[in-house]
Amino acid sequence: MSNHSKSLELINNLIDFVGFRLKEKKLAVNALCSYFCCKLMTQAEHKESGPATIWYKNPHEKELIATAVNYEMYFLKAIAERGKGILAADESTGTIGKRFDTIKVANEENNRRKYRQLLFTTPDIGKYISGVILYDETIRQKTDDGVPFVEVLKKAGVIPGIKVDLGTKDIPSQPGEVYTQGLTDLDKRTAEYYKIGARFAKWCVKRV
């Protein structure tokens, strides 16, 4: 991906984020319009960049960087908003199957989707829930009307999150101790989840 493409992707992500919090993309575009002018460094100023590198200069560079950091902090504060909780809807296929067994419901993909749909379409969910932790299957699912769950949550003012660990395995010769799987391709998976719409992640171990 070229530097230009990366810049556009960053800008789109920022607009998407601010638009989500303000619930109005036009306001987000106005808030970030100056971000379109990123840093300009000539080859003389930044020789290691090489002759093909083109940057853009903005006299308010420091303020823009501080603003971007503030957006991230705003997200963190929104997740931890007083009076609200985080809904853990990240049960693995096996775990949710055990719960379905207690009510005699088949552990099938469509049943899991309908169960999550029931949760995420609860009226006024955003008044009580700040974020929802999703599972790999769930973050890709849609409502009966074809609306992605991520979009349903965002519209309700709820921040979508994702479980990124892949479960645990026993440590050989260490009875009762386990290690968490999922580090090998964590970078690729988190990048994909972010593109889908996740804005925070959960990583879990059973023992420390």
From TrEMBL:
InterPro entries: Aldolase_TIM (IPR013785), FBA_I (IPR000741)
EC number: 4.1.2.13
Biological processes annotated in GO: glycolytic process
UniProt pathway: Carbohydrate degradation; glycolysis; D-glyceraldehyde 3-phosphate and glycerone phosphate from D-glucose: step 4/4
Claim: Lyase is one of the keywords in the record: yes
One Pfam short name: Glycolytic
A single MF term (Gene Ontology): fructose-bisphosphate aldolase activity
Keyword tags: Glycolysis, Lyase
SUPFAM superfamilies recorded: Aldolase
Family to which this protein belongs: Belongs to the class I fructose-bisphosphate aldolase family.
Record-given protein name: fructose-bisphosphate aldolase
